[in-house]
Amino acid sequence: xxxxxxxxxxxxxFVQKLDxxxxxxYILIAILIPFVILPFRWVGAVFILLxxxxxxxxxxxxxxxxxxxxxxxxxxxxxxxxxxxMPGNKTPAVEIFGLTFYKEGLxxxxxxxxxxxxxxLAFALLVLTTRPSDLIQSLVKRGLSxxxxxxxxxxxxxxxxxxxxxxxIMDAQRSRGLETEGSLWVRLKAFIPLIGPVVMSSLLxxxxxxxxxxxxxxxxxxxxxFLYEREPLVLDKILQWALIASLVISLVARFTVL
Amino acid sequence: xNKKSMWSFSFSTPVLVLIPVAVGINYVGKLFAQVLRLPLxxxxxxxxxxxxxxxxxxxxxxxxxxxxxxxLTMDPISFVxxxxxxxxxxxxxxxxxxxxxxxxxxxxxxxxxxxxxxxVVSTPLNVIFWGGQTGNVWGDALYAYLIAHGVPxxxxxxLDELVxxxxxxxxxxxxxxxxxxxxxxxxxxxxxxxEALEKLD
Lengths: 258, 201
Known about the structure:
The complex is a heterodimer.
Chain A: H1 14-17, H2 20-37, H3 41-57, H4 64-85, E1 92-96, E2 99-102, H5 103-129, H6 132-141, H7 146-175, H8 184-215, H9 234-256
Antiparallel strand pairs in A: 1-2
Chain B: H1 13-35, H2 45-73, H3 82-98, H4 104-130, H5 137-148, H6 153-181, H7 185-192
């Protein structure tokens, strides 16, 4: 039986124990303040620093690097392309291999890097320190329909099951003579016979799964209860109000000082 | 058989079970595209099939949930593009409802429209997050060439996204169409008819 998908890292700090809703609120604020309310580079940098400290404290910092991998490549290409070609480029900054990088483009690239890192790290904080099932449960407690809660958690279970079929289908079709290597056209043609069986079997299964759920009273009306109850922490409330306060303060700062 | 309204927000149990499977199909499509080293993503086949089976709302929800799950388990930036995925589901759902996608030619047209919609929705996100780039080598090379020659950033970014999306979305809709037409009738009816399964009583 395949394990449910998750990036959660087991550790015993307050970050893991926190209400997932507080972490969602943190993401919202880490996006709203540096993007909309106070769009300055240093504000973004403060949030990056804050996220890094929390990630370090939660003992998940090493797991952040693989998450950054893909974005990192784009960020490098952003520095190159904006530094060389941005329309507003005027002041030459450095010259490497006969190519002139401009100050305006590089500063713009820096802004983009700070924004991307800010968003990525804020989400990483949620994703690495929260069990997906806990997140779903707390969303359902706050009013998300339990039926949608089921959709989310069942996706986390169905995906590994479907992925585990991939290798055996490859082998089965190859043994029937399907070519999976060669020219682009050959590989493209192989796609349908490969994906077809997974799609068919999983769509046909939906019929049975729907019936099985109905038989167990999935559509029954009435109040749903939870198998696990989470003890609310005092810290949840404190941090929640601290985050709301920071939002208010930044709004006040925006409309008075600036 | 008379269909439900296109914009119905009442979800039968089969529909709710379909959504996770659609997300799973997206994952498997992406995986096979990688294994076969295809120059396409093919990561929204499930969303397209779900829209064909049960309309724009379910398609849009499948798309959005796909990116939420992907964001939770693979790459957090994916959350941001939930908007694009939802728009893809919405577009296919509406087009499938208005005129049945019953031949390959129509599937190609739907693919073109989907690519256009996906590019329109993604462009502002790309500009906010990546200064207009997409992370695709060919698209970004075009982008660099265009802005170096004085083309406005928004247009360059749109074309950057579009060159990547056109072949990918057309291929995605064609594949989804080929799968859709070979589905057993009783399965298709379960989704497009009145909620047959819940009428057991």
